[in-house]
Fold:
Amino acid sequence: GIQVEQSPPDLILQEGANSTLRCNFSDSVNNLQWFHQNPWGQLINLFYIPSGTKQNGRLSATTVATERYSLLYISSSQTTDSGVYFCAVRNNNDMRFGAGTRLTVKP
Amino acid sequence: DSGVTQTPKHLITATGQRVTLRCSPRSGDLSVYWYQQSLDQGLQFLIQYYNGEERAKGNILERFSAQQFPDLHSELNLSSLELGDSALYFCASSVGWSDSGNTIYFGEGSWLTVV
Structure:
């Protein structure tokens, strides 16, 4: 099956800093989503982005499907951004999650 | 609020027992997915149903089974529970069944603790 690798595994930021999270995948995919799992365990959909670039407030994402990677940008980070960010890819009805990037934003 | 509803939110049960987790998808969604999140295995896809029929199967144990009912709600049945089954079980839904063009939305999960 498809391998999904996320980096970095852990990231600690000061409030107000910017960050880039990366997701590499081993095969072509038809579907890619970014999720944020908050400290209460809720998985929140951030972007559906199999290709191209999208922006939503302080967050944006870019997927370069031909090079098999996606980036999630967080600008002006806030303490509420803390949690684990997952990349999930899907091909042939098989959805695979990366191991996640654990983000801690300090006040 | 994603619109996907899961019950119960928390469940504690003993080894060897059987439990049923319930999920109501978002209004209009025909696909339901079940995922297991454990500390050692991460987030794993278990099974997908579309409009009442099994569509895809992942790493679901034989002790586990699921179904989707005519009203589109789904249940995940876990039997002969073991300590290692303790995990957060997520239900998710999407409009269609295919990979493309289907954003998947997750419920808040059901925390299962087996003691």
